[in-house]
Amino acid sequence: MSESAYLLYLGCAIPSRVLSYEVATRKVAEGLDLRLVEMPEFSCCGLPLDAISHDMMLVLAAQNLCLAEQQGLNIMTLCPGCNGTLCTVNETLKKDRGLRERVNGQLGEVGMEFRGEISVRHLVQVLLRDIGLKAIEDRVARPLKGLRAAAHHGCHLLRPSRHLGIDDPEHPTILKKLIEATGSRCLDYRNELECCGAPVMVTRPLDAAGGRLGKVGVSLQTTREKLVHLREAGAEALVTVCPSCYRMYDINQPIIERAFNESFNIPVLHYPELLALAMGTDPDELALNEHRIDTSKILQTG
Amino acid sequence: MTVHFALGAVMNEGVDVAKEEAESKEGEKERFYRLSSADSRFKYELSRVPGSEKLLLCLQCGTCTADCPVARFSDSYRPIRILRMAQLGMRERVLSSDEIWLCATCFACSERCHQGVEFANILRALRNMAVKEGIIPPGFREIASNVLKTGFSNEITKFQRRKREKLGLPPLPNSNPERIAKLAEIVGFFSLIGRGDNRSV
Question: Are strands A5-9 and A74-77 parallel, antiparallel or unpaired?
Fold first, then answer.
């Protein structure tokens, strides 16, 4: 199995709502000679249905893994939610024979079989482990010297660590190292591991009544708190690797500013955007105008 | 003699569980829950769900709640309380509560529990049980219907597909909703989302 080629698993959110992440990833892959192969078919990873039926989540994740096995290639994910689900289900089915037989019984009825032949990796793992910091640094043509960036790893990238094992779940450094490879600084700030609040958006009506700030709800209060901590640290950009976290911090930032009557104006970049800029990609080739918070300040650094 | 269990630590703030369920005399209402109305087998039923095996190992230390990003801002969501209520067999109260739908699945509780209780998995099991009782919040129902209809959790519109083209992105492959529907049939997913009322708020 070729290690340098990956099937690109996009999931649901990225190919429809967070196109900027996909655009930048493809640019960076091109520049790093990382071969990405389109999946001829894929569907939702199953994560959003786990709350309703764990069995449905299992079988949805497993059928995506089967589709990748048919291509004989490992999966590269961009969304940590998809990554966590596909990784966990992949590893569990490989180890738990009883469960594998049950799921295969269900998959058999649609002519599929889970064989446990592939691995699932997130973009940051591929960048750090397959490409390597040294090779990335070598490709940086326009170091982002002087930029004060901050990392948000995101919950599902790290936890549950016993299934994912990507990095130390309490003191992750994987994204920080990648940010520093672009020449940018990576700031420490308060409560870096805090959740973005996105998963609670689904049931916002259930908590908004009890939340201390009325209709704002728990999710946006959590999002706001990180923005406050970033502002305290003087961050000029937040770097994410998750479409949901990105949407909370970028797309919802003006909503939070209005609801709390305060100003943040902190641009949020997907890591591959930061890297693409450092590699000298023309900003016009990235979909930066898809961002809600103006990113032009970042373009002036370096 | 009726056995009462003091719930002070469990419900010291927010939603007053005891108020709704205890029928004991005035004054005791807010502080006691009548255990005879509990389902003593519930904890075993829950412990049998894969991922929830360690429910009974919870010592009520509160690490899950101290580290919970939702508990920080919610007045009523407390993992420690849901765990104790599940252990005590307060089945109906737990399964019909709004709180079980507020977990952010950030796994901080599971990661840091020194007893290895994995509350996030227990909560998922409770949600799955509530669904079997016919409770599905509208947001989740919408996601389920999108997946069954299109294969994706959010509908991908024509506008978005055109925008992909404009940005030079390859067209999206088709998913296979027929296969997903077949799998949904096999795991009993249709019968789950078919029945019951949408939780109204």
Answer: parallel
